[in-house]
Write a structure and sequence with these properties.
It is built from nine helices and 16 strands. It is α/β, with parallel strands linked by helices. It has two domains: about 35-365, Glycosidases (TIM Barrel, Alpha-Beta Barrel), CATH 3.20.20.80; about 375-454, Sandwich (Immunoglobulin-like). A seven-stranded parallel β-sheet has the order 5-4-3-2-1-7-6. The chain has a six-stranded antiparallel β-sheet with strand order 8-9-10-16-12-13, with helices on one face. The chain has a three-stranded antiparallel β-sheet with strand order 11-15-14, with no helix packed on it. It starts with a helix and ends with a strand. Alpha-D-glucopyranose binds near residues 22, 236, 282 and 297.
Length: about 450
């Protein structure tokens, strides 16, 4: 028994590390299609102003703290312990539903921490590829409302998560996986499973595929119609698409979803076209500024969900990333995985609060800003106030690097003055040979900082 547990733990740690290998490609940059509906455009612009959000992965995979869903998928980059057959492993994984009993579930804590971090919108996993619904679906029994947490009055966790974040003023988003590895309409056990796609050939069983499309449609409708206002529908699993022979009928889904949620932003990620209202580079930042809506999704640790031994990114690293993302015209959604008990753990809280403290003092250089043509020089990233009255320079400073005594740059030169944003103090500057040089005050912490340029 002990041996099995050790092997399982080892393989768990390995799989968690492997999560990184499975990243979604971004759609080709030149193929963004602006939505035409005015209310969608409107919401999209509102969303672009928010800049910083939280992406919460929470599900049965949180119980042992392993990679979300992927360990049951038969692809070459995945290994499992050899003491269990694939079928035994899958039974164990799906059976985690009977152990997932998050007694300390506290979405108000999540929302409070996210607000303290300076985040303005949220996305929550309503259903990941493993098919376990984190809401009260009536299309399947495989839901949190019908397993270990079923007797808890808060069993319909999606409702409570949206309520808690809604109360704290967040824009609300729902992550939903198009592929469903628990459904016999997608992974039909009659055929062996060889990877992320349907087990059966769709051209031979078109009726089965149609049933899956209807099932997906109805599940999305449950979320869109039963949980109050929702702003973003974030659809994962880009291999489920017409181009790949898995036409899920997006026009029908989109029309239904927007009937329930006027102006809804739809992110059919990696599927270029009218339903990818913003693009989602994963774990990366695009090389250059992009003039259409996009969002980098990056986890605070190496993993999307909770894992037992996370490798955290430092607050400075997140701030640096945010500065670069915003200067390039994007948003950052930071991944945080609540614990199996239902809380955001202290190590994450501490880091998120430190990010928020920086944003409290320097948020004017981030929120509601727009791109400026010269957006980068050295380790300075530039943004601009919407009315054009001022620009901001954010110095990204890697951990353990000291602050320089002076900063100097040659674009976005001040006409009047330069201020340290965190204190409002005007800093002495000189301009010579097309470069401005600013002397920084003594005693500032070695951390990223922002300047206001007028
Ligand atoms: C990747 C992972 C998926 C995760 C998503 C979050 O697509 O495969 O598991 O939910 O990233 O961005």
């Amino acid at each position: 028994m002990n041996r099995i547990i050790t092997i399982l733990l080892l393989c768990t740690a390995w799989l968690a590390g492997m999560a990184q290998n499975n990243v979604h490609e971004q759609s080709p940059a030149d193929q963004y299609q602006w939505p035409t509906e005015p209310d969608v455009l409107n919401k999209l612009h509102q969303w672009q102003d928010l800049k910083f959000g939280i992406l919460l992965h929470w599900g049965i995979y949180s119980v042992p703290g392993i990679v979300e869903s992927w360990s049951i998928c038969n692809e070459s980059w995945i290994t499992r312990d050899t003491t269990r057959t694939y079928e035994q492993y899958k039974d164990w994984y799906f059976g985690l539903a009977d152990e997932f009993n998050p007694k300390s579930f506290d979405p108000t804590q999540w929302a409070t921490v996210a607000r303290q971090a300076g985040m303005k919108y949220m996305i929550f996993t309503t259903k990941h590829h493993d098919g376990f619904c984190m809401y009260d679906s009536h299309e399947t029994d495989y839901t949190i409302t019908r397993h270990a947490f079923k007797d808890d009055p808060r069993r319909d966790v999606l409702r409570h998560v949206l309520k808690a974040f809604g109360q704290q003023g967040f824009m609300l988003g729902t992550y939903f996986s198009k592929p469903d590895w628990h459904s016999q309409l997608y992974w039909w056990d009659v055929y062996p499973n060889r990877g992320r796609n349907t087990t059966y050939p769709i051209d031979r069983y078109p009726w089965r595929w149609e049933q899956f499309c209807q099932f997906t449609y109805r599940q999305i409708e449950e979320i869109m119609s039963g949980y109050g206002p929702i702003d973003i529908l974030w659809l994962d699993g880009g291999w489920v698409c017409a181009e790949n022979g898995q036409d899920i009928h997006m026009p029908l889904i989109a029309q239904m979803a927007r009937n329930h949620q006027p102006g809804l932003i739809i992110v059919d990620r990696t599927i270029r076209g009218p339903y990818e209202n913003y693009q989602t580079p994963e774990r990366t930042i695009p090389d250059t500024q992009l003039n259409y809506p996009w969002e980098s999704c990056i986890p605070l640790s190496d993993d999307w969900g909770w894992v037992p031994r996370p490798r955290w990114k430092s607050p400075a690293r997140v701030v640096n990333t945010l500065a670069e993302v915003v200067a390039k015209g994007g948003n950052l959604v930071l991944g945080v995985g609540p614990t199996p008990e239902g809380l955001i753990q202290p190590e994450a809280v501490e880091r998120l609060q430190a990010i928020g403290q920086w944003l409290d003092r320097n948020g004017r250089a981030i929120y509601g800003t727009v791109c400026t043509t010269h957006y980068h020089e050295g380790n300075l990233w530039f943004t601009a106030a919407r009315d054009g009255s001022r620009r901001y320079a954010i110095l990204t400073l890697p951990d353990d690097e000291p602050l320089p005594d002076t900063l100097s740059w040659s674009v976005n030169l001040p006409a009047k003055r330069v201020r340290l944003l965190s204190t409002g103090k005007t800093l002495k500057h000189t301009i010579a040979d097309g470069r401005v040089t600013v002397r920084l005050p003594q005693g500032l912490p070695a951390a990223p900082l922002a300047l206001e340029i007028e």
